[in-house]
Amino acid sequence: MTDFAAWLLYIVVAGLGRLPWSWLHALGDGLCWLWERLDAREQRVAGRNLELAYPDMLPAQRRDLQHTVLRTTARQALETLRLWTRPHVENLRLIERVEGRQLLDDAIATGRGVIIAAPHYGNWELLNQWFASLQPIALLYRPPESAVGEAFLRRVRADVGDRVTQIRAEGAGIRQLFKLLKAGGMVGILPDQQPKAGDGEFAPFFGIDAFTMTLVGRVAERSAATVLFAYCEQTSSAPRFTLRFEAAPTGIDSADPLTATTALNAGVERVARRDPAQYQWTYKRFKMRPDGSSEPNPYQDLEDRR
Asked: Could you give the domains of the chain?
């Protein structure tokens, strides 16, 4: 029944994915209008995150950025439906340029494995498809609460030729990552998801302590794999993208969790600051606060208004 429900969901999404880009963007703009009109969760969380990350920005400027963030987020969501359900070879034509490719080639040549840190910036689903066109890659993911949702994601992220291995972010999955990297493989991790208690360290992100996964640093330190940041940045409303690779900040493979997570967040922040509208500000990144601190959950008043 789960697989059947996921298949039905796929059929609906595939229908939406066949709409022209201009129609998808119009739907995204309508969704943005609805979020703002209803003061939806996305509107409230994005506003609070921008207040925290850009405290010196004038209120009017921040409201303008908030609107742009919501519009971009809504459009990206609709674009992803198309990317999930259209042939990958067709999707990859949207990538106009690849910058920093030599960093990837050099990392692969070492034979020690490559860890791709892909922040929630631009379109990370298109990034996954590009990697799968190059060589096998394992994607670490946090399963949705819904079994149907997980079955759907596994379906749309699959690749012809089984070049994409999807690994749940749990004990057995982490052990599988180490084996893949030891064999010189490539793994992709979304580095800016808040981990479970016990699996992270508080480190600065936009000047605020954010509970940050220690996984990237731990795996990099133990495997000696190269860590690279990668993202597909949208460069026009057509849409068109530039895929970029960047070296990870020094210290990301440190045995000291604070040093490693500080470097990880510095890399994510560097990417997010390129074009803040393309970063995922609708996520409650700062919800968890240090034990024993007097810092309140910055989203508590927003949650109380539900």
From this structure: 2-287+297-304 (3.40.1130)
